[in-house]
Design brief:
The chain has about 260 residues and is of the alpha+beta class. The protein is built from nine helices and six strands. A four-stranded mixed β-sheet has the order 4-3-5-6. A two-stranded antiparallel sheet has the order 1-2.
Length: about 260
């Protein structure tokens, strides 16, 4: 029997807007403390330095303001669950733009201040159903803002990994939205009801074709914490490594998700 059609998850637009501004503020405060030596450190993102990564965070947020400045497209082209699978094609352009932005803005705090002011001002009266001409495809502002939680949380984790002791905090709503969107993307990639993926306290999804679980303990269960899940979904950590290090518990013959990950790369 095929699994019942799942309802699309909804997000509180006001909470998402608050979460984005809060997470961006946390990153800005941390970047302000970085020394020249720390800014020159390598990251786990190819040849990007910490300075490049810090500049990229502003780029990821500035796209909201820039897209609001553009003419509104005629119709939506992308749903929220389409977005994770539409990002890889732009990786080269993003890398080039990031390096140019970092080189052109030696004063990172000034860059962050301009970006934050623009975002706050543009969001003040922009309706959630306003369509944005995003490069991945036209989508509503409300949906696009959820994708920004992914950008901010993932790159907060990248910065924390690159600079020991930096310890940028995670806004709870931003972390929750990021976790849920990536969990739902897994369920969209591998629809089914045979495997339950648990990411407490934020998400539980069922996925993978096979016998559908109806009651009691599911025969196939995967469980992990939010940051490990986000690292798996974005290719920061390999499935086999996370299992070997006991960052993931996986039981059942359909509990190996290694072939489905990463979702973003």
């Amino acid at each position: 029997m095929s699994p019942a059609k799942k309802r699309t998850r909804t997000y509180d637009p006001a909470k998402i807007r608050t979460a984005i501004l809060a997470q961006f503020g946390y990153v800005r405060q941390a970047v302000r403390t970085l020394t020249p030596e720390q800014l020159a450190r390598p990251t786990r993102l190819g040849d990007w330095t910490v300075r490049d990564l810090a500049a990229h965070v502003t780029m990821a947020v500035e796209t909201v303001s820039r897209n609001l400045d553009r003419d509104e497209p005629a119709k939506a082209e992308l749903t929220l669950l389409d977005w994770p699978f539409a990002t890889a094609a732009r990786a080269g352009d993003i890398a080039d733009g990031t390096r140019e932005l970092a080189a052109a803005n030696p004063d990172l705090d000034a860059l962050y201040a301009r970006t934050e002011e623009r975002l706050t001002r543009r969001l003040a009266d922009a309706p959630g159903d306003r369509l944005l001409a995003a490069r991945t495809g036209a989508m509503t502002l409300a949906d696009y803002l959820v994708t920004r939680t992914v950008e901010l949380v993932v790159h907060t984790d990248d910065l924390n990994a690159a600079v020991p002791g930096l310890d940028i905090p995670y806004d709870r709503q931003a972390l929750a939205a990021c976790t849920r969107l990536l969990a739902d993307a897994l369920a969209a990639r591998a629809p089914g009801g045979s495997t339950e993926v648990r990411i407490p306290p934020y998400a539980v999804v069922q996925c993978v074709e096979g016998p559908r679980h109806t009651r009691g303990t599911p025969p196939n269960v995967v469980e992990t914490d939010p940051l490990t899940w986000i690292r798996l979904a974005t290719g920061r950590v390999a499935w086999q490594d996370a299992v070997a290090e006991a960052k993931v518990s996986a039981s059942g013959e359909r509990a190996d998700l290694g072939g489905l990950l990463p979702l973003l790369s």
